[in-house]
User: What shape does this take?
Amino acid sequence: MINFVIKKVFGTQNDRYLKSLRPVIKQINDMEPTIQAMQDEDFPARIAELKEEVANGTDLQEILPEVFALVREASVRVLGMRHYDVQLIGGCALHDGKIAEMKTGEGKTLVATLPVVLNALTGKGVHVITVNDYLATRDAEWMGQLYGFLGLTTGIIVHGLTDEDRKAAYGSDITYGTNNEFGFDYLRDNMKFYKEQLVQRPHHFAIVDEVDSILIDEARTPLIISGASEDSTALYSQIDTIVPSLKEETHYTMDEKARSVALTDEGVIRVEQLLKIDNLYDPTNITLQHHVLQALKAHKIFKRDVDYIVKDGQVVIVDEFTGRLMPGRRFSDGLHQALEAKEGVKVEAENQTLASITFQNYFRMYEKLGGMTGTADTEAVEFQQIYNLSVCSIPTNRPMARKDFPDVIYRTTREKFNAIADSIAELHQGGQPVLVGTISIETSELISQLLKQRRIPHNVLNAKHHEQEAQIVAEAGQKGHVTIATNMAGRGTDIVLGEGVKKAGGLHILGTERHESRRIDNQLRGRAGRQGDPGSSRFYLSLEDDLMRLFASERMSNMMQKLGMDEGEPIENNMVSKAIENAQKRVEGRNFEIRKTLLDYDNVMNQQREVIYTLRRDIMMNESQEELIQEFLSDLMDVLYEEWNATKPEDRGELAEALPAQLDEIFNLSASINLESVPTEEEAHKAVQDRLAVLRDDAKEVYEDVLRYFLLEELDRCWKEHLLNMDHLREGIGLRGYGQRDPKQEYKREGFELFQDMLFRIRENVFKALTRLRIQRPEEEEQEILRDEFRHKEETNVTYSGGEEDNKPAKRAEPKIGRNAPCPCGSGKKYKKCCGA
Assistant: This one.
């Protein structure tokens, strides 16, 4: 009640923010006549002057009115579009690091140009991030004309570019691209060996288009770069053959809400019989147990043409939110291999993680972040908690005229689809265009078949070709057109009404099912009623829909049965719609917890990732590695001599043998000093320094390259092993809850211990390599060749598990001291199996 009174008297926080922008909008409008009097050539000259002012300390807020006025007039001259006042408000919100919630058709693409140009004046680069390559290319080319008129450069990051192309694009004032490309470039940069190979600049300012899709929907899937492991794939096919003989409830139970399966006691016995083993839960059979559960999930939980499709002999994931195919992305933890075995296609090798990051942690690296979408308010709490982003609802330029009709609910799916086909036929006959929104490809094809039987012409969008998709969606507003699409297909493309359609009632949105998220339903509705156009929407549901079956109250089903409803008779009631909305809220809350848990675990990894990536960057950027090598040496000596120094002389018995052995193993000191007795820490330290001095004299010009190579090589190798260990720790950490221990705290504690061990191994392995390395001086003319060979890059096959990437090599450096040649130590073995091991 108190909050209600406060809002009535003072207005909401959103109202107060919009009110605070009125003086700024007035300033921009007051400057318009002056800007209109400028010549075309004056625009880039003035932008260059403002760039210089910013470089000399002028705050962006001071010049915001003039820059926005310049951009608006430039847009009129170049694109023939003038920013409305509400678009200026949206631009201010983005510059302030907020999410601008703007209805479909309000011109979000044009709004972004305002803060983009303003923040590009810093010279640090601005990133504009979209959901697919088509939109990135379209917006970069379209808005690039405006930026070029102002004297600013535009780059684009899409699939298939070379590192040189990427570096040039990131070096532009403004860079367009997809979230996956930006994230993978960050990970790849942290696998490079030389600073000249880096493509990204530091993360300054980003505007995320369709921010809810990228920061909420895709936040459950981390970006992963992985390399093939050596594990055999035969076991997947073997396990797949036993799954059909297992019966639900008898041998296993299934939780569709959690998308999980579990074996019953009888099921365990049956699996042991089929696999001819004594105890499935024996530690030696843990892999078998894991494979059985994944095979069950593949057969019983994951559905073909809903969760994935089979195309060209491959299992391709279907994005549950967009309905798009995601080639290159694979389910983790062996699930993808289980699906391949189920579908009888080639089972690819499992992958080992080489680098990973969540979208949450990637986007939190930006100094300032803004976002645009038509639907963000339902997730405002999550945006605030995870990203510290507040949502600002921007008023529409014209009042909304769309009619949103209550849902209609049928008892069975069959009745529902018949009613949908009847409704489409009626609307089509009246000339009203219809956009049918579905959740899955399977549903799209089913409705298409019903319409073919009634000979109703229609288009089906399966999101395979973005360019074709945009064209079909753009034409969906023509008279009598029927378009069937997944809920978000064609997102980012306006549906313009054809001639005579406004009189027919505008575009009608027909939803075939409620999505788990209210926001995605709102996105579908938002396709109609742009810029004050007429339009309407209605959702058709049945008690057999997944959302209703799993999450809605049983009272609804009982109520419909008591009413004694006839075949095909629907119920249309606001109370029912409210019950469905409550079910959606419960699912949204559960999904938020999943994303938050993922982030909680990744935060542990993120702290470790920052340490490793900062260290890598320092090694790449610093001309000399001497200071770091000395720091590593001091740390190692302190650890090795810690117990020795803390033990009384009379109690050092076993240590007197162990310590010299450790010194020789790590530093190869037996050839330099007498290790029959324990040397002092200072003596050991000096002996290692002497060995490094010999290496420095031998290597001469390539000494720093030698140090850099072994530092990065060992850091990457140990980090890869650490990621695997952390994956294994994460898999079993949930079981700690049964012992009354917090799994997250246990993961944090044990993860820190593993990380400390890894840091010690890096130091240890670097000195094992450096103190055994011998470089034979080449002839003078060969010195340049040797120097180049240290910069030679070897290829390692990797796959990209979080986005639309095909398998391609990551670059690695390799010194040609003879990895396949005789080892310089004189052992007669190959270098890679001796000192280079």
User: Anything to note?
Assistant: The two ends are 71 Å apart (CA to CA). The longest helix spans residues 574-621. The longest strand covers residues 534-542.
